[in-house]
Amino acid sequence: MEVSKGELLYEGKAKRLYHSADPDELVMEFKDSLTAFDAVKKGTLEQKGAINNRISAFLMSELNAAGIETSFIKRLDDTHSLVRNVRIVPLEVIVRYEAHGSLCRRYGIAAGTVIDPPLVETGYKNDALHDPFLTDEIAVLMGLATRDELARLRYLALIAGEKLKEIYARAGVRLLDFKLEFGRYSPVQPGPDGQSQPTRLILADEITPDTCRLVDSATGEKLDKDLFRFDLGDIGEGYRKLLSKIEGA
Question: What residue ranges define each of the domains in the chain, with the CATH number in brackets?
Fold first, then answer.
């Protein structure tokens, strides 16, 4: 790893964040841990961190190349990536192309129902409260984001989703739904003109089978964390197959 990993800044369920020598950049480490249902169910998958690091690096690089700015800079080694230092907006933006999971449980909608145009939902990132879904009014009342930011988050999630569907389709994978996190990026370093750079919202965190619901387009085989959530099969095999399909497309 050519970038030095400094003091631990944050540890979550699936990743750790470390300072680097550059205040605008952090080192992200992907862990081998598995969690579901607000970390009530836990496990470990050998090499999961390395697999997810490669998947997320590939997808984030594709989004960057398409003009959708992300926090990802480069992959450093098997389990570490260099990312921009953002202040995470404490919201999850979920985009659904089919009805699955909590949407079906909440409303009794049949699993697999096609959603067109896609449904965009916003949730509050808080395990103690079980990540409740929010209206814009409640998000603004809580000071989590402004109305303009909420509109921007939904827009970015939808255009990122169209690109992700395209990338997955090339690999023979169907994207059913996904969740994204965003951050406010306020660079310390001045811009090319020597002036301070304005804060902007960019896509952050990760894009992996932990955060996407995915199936093999030909067989319908699941390739995401539902394999662990609901004991549906070998999650290691599913994640490795997804990586192979994406990198081989």
Answer: 8-87 (3.30.200.20), 90-234 (3.30.470.20)
Q: What is the CA radius of gyration of the chain?
A: 18
Residue 174, pLDDT above cutoff 90:
yes
pLDDT digits (tens, 9 = 90+) for 130-163: 999 999 999 999 999 999 999 999 999 999 999 9
1, pLDDT greater than 80: no
Separation of alpha carbons 23 and 9, rounded Å: 12
Give 240's Cβ-side CA count (13 Å radius): 8
What secondary structure letter does DSSP report for 203?
Answer: E
Cis before 117 (ω within 30) = yes
How many whole angstroms separate alpha carbon 45 and alpha carbon 1?
23
3-class SS of residue 191: coil
- The total number of residues shown for the chain amounts to 249
Structure tokens at 222: 């699941």
pTM of the predicted model over 0.90: yes
Assess contact for 59 and 167: CB atoms under 8 A. yes
Q: Which position has the higher pLDDT, 2 or 205? A: 205
Instruction: In whole angstroms, give the CA distance from residue 136 to residue 69.
Output: 24
User: Which residues neighbour 99 within 8 Å (Cβ) at sequence distance 6 or greater?
Assistant: 109, 110, 111, 112, 113, 115
Taking residue 15's Cβ as centre, other Cβ atoms within 10 Å add up to 22
- Which has the closest alpha carbon to 99: 79, 80, 113? 113
Helix H segments across the chain?
A: 48-65, 102-107, 136-141, 147-170, 226-229, 235-248
